[in-house]
Design brief:
The protein has 290 residues and is α/β, with parallel strands linked by helices. The protein is built from eleven helices and 13 strands. It folds into two domains: 118 residues, D-Maltodextrin-Binding Protein, domain 2 (3-Layer(aba) Sandwich); 129 residues, 3-Layer(aba) Sandwich (D-Maltodextrin-Binding Protein, domain 2). It is globular and about 60 Å long. This is Phosphate ABC transporter substrate-binding protein.
Length: 290
């Protein structure tokens, strides 16, 4: 009798252990660890969204790892990360590689309109820059444009916009968007090329300080001058407007897809707006009452 009871208890315990193990392994969007790969140019908005997600789901732990855009994409393909932030358009070959290696359809989760901007020291006499100046300057041995490095989102996007390969452009390098701003006064003949999110936060003290150190040049294209503001980002009229999006290799609804969904909902989009960027999925609507 006792032996039969022992066997029954062991069976129940085994079933419970297996059930718990299955529960622990089941997908969960509201608890667990996640590392997000992001280029330094849009690290701020990624961090803000991660903080918002962790506040809503305290059992989640999100780490932001800064990595050049191209290298982050390769890590995603090679299953070294579950989610990466991208800005440039992938080539047909890259989309094919994504779908084959990740075994998912290429569906970018767009969440914000950002921009690449051209900056000079505050006291510079230069007031604007033309698309022709940008093209010719990036072909010149003078290397008057300063980027934050090779494989970076800023370089990739400008090259793509000009229908060039990054390797064909000539430029100087100062690692880090913020470093470009802080060191630009030592290079008065140069033009810094940075991501808008570097200093787009309206009421952030560091952003205010950085904005005070440089002048953002409007871009002239086809005889018209375009400045960077909410309207030009929303309408994508500023020539170097770019759309930020998430890519994941997660096939189920786990923490990566939970974070993506959150970032694209109204709450996440409000965080994007507070970062000084244009939300991709919500727009301000004006209603006239009569």
């Amino acid at each position: 009798m006792r032996n039969s009871l022992k066997i029954a208890l062991l069976s129940v315990m085994s079933i419970a252990a297996v059930s718990c193990k299955k529960e622990d392994q089941s997908p969960s969007y509201h608890k667990g660890d996640l590392t997000i790969l992001t280029d330094e140019s849009f690290k701020s908005v990624t961090e803000a969204l991660a903080e918002g997600y962790m506040i809503n789901y305290p059992e989640t732990h999100i780490k932001i790892e800064t990595k050049k855009e191209d290298l982050g994409f390769l890590d995603l393909l090679n299953d070294k990360a579950r989610i990466a932030v991208m800005s440039r358009d992938l080539t047909p070959e890259e989309k094919k590689a994504y779908e084959e290696q990740v075994d998912l359809k290429f569906l970018p989760a767009k969440f914000a309109a950002d921009a690449v901007v051209f900056v000079v020291p505050k006291d510079s006499p230069k007031q604007s820059i033309s698309m022709d100046e940008i093209r010719s300057g990036l072909e010149s041995d003078a290397k008057n444009f300063i980027f934050d490095g090779t494989n970076s989102s800023n370089l990739n996007f400008v090259a793509q916009k000009l229908k060039k390969q990054p390797k064909d452009l000539k430029f100087s390098i100062i690692p880090g968007n913020q470093n470009i701003i802080e060191e630009l006064e030592k290079h008065t003949d140069k033009i810094g090329v940075i991501g808008l999110n570097t200093f787009s936060r309206p009421y952030d003290k560091t952003s205010e300080k950085l904005r005070g150190m440089v002048k953002v040049l409007p871009v002239e294209n086809n005889g018209k001058l375009y400045t960077v503001d909410n309207a030009s980002l929303r309408e994508m009229t500023y020539p170097f407007t770019r759309v930020l999006y998430f890519l994941t290799n997660e096939g189920n609804f786990n923490i990566a897809n939970g974070f993506i969904r959150y970032s694209c909902t109204q709450l996440g989009q409000m965080i994007v707006e507070k970062e000084g960027l244009q939300p991709y999925n919500i727009y301000k609507r004006e209603v006239q009452m009569r």
